[in-house]
Amino acid sequence: MRFGYTIVYVPDVAASLAFFESAFGFPRRFLHESGVYGELETGETTLAFAAHELGRANLPAGHVAASESALPLGMEVAFVTPTVEAAHRRALDAGATELAAPVAKPWGQVVSYLRCPDGTLVELCTPVKA
């Protein structure tokens, strides 16, 4: 078994793809012609977005929409970069909301937290030094 992809349910797939392209520099792999599903080129594991309507079709009992929650969901998408401060600023300039400015953690990582316009919680961090 391997970790294949993460799908984030969002109100507007094209808008989320455009934001993640602008804020984090991930190129778009594709947006389905229906507009309800799209993917980014993020490395070995795919980051995908699906419309809430697709989420409702897949999960008839419902799901929590991060875009409608006052607080971020209890899960995050983490992006590893050697330049957290610059990446953090770029995301803010693209429209993200700052939840925690970059800070050096006791274990040596620099970490920051942002909330994207679609409600997704993103951690930016330097690599963990083992």
From TrEMBL:
Gene3D superfamilies: 2,3-Dihydroxybiphenyl 1,2-Dioxygenase, domain 1. Signal peptide: none annotated. InterPro entries: Glyas_Bleomycin-R_OHBP_Dase, Glyas_Fos-R_dOase_dom, VOC_core. Residues 2-127 form the VOC domain. Pfam families: Glyoxalase. Coiled coil: none annotated. This is VOC family protein. It comes from Crenobacter cavernae. The lineage of its organism: Bacteria, Pseudomonadati, Pseudomonadota, Betaproteobacteria, Neisseriales.
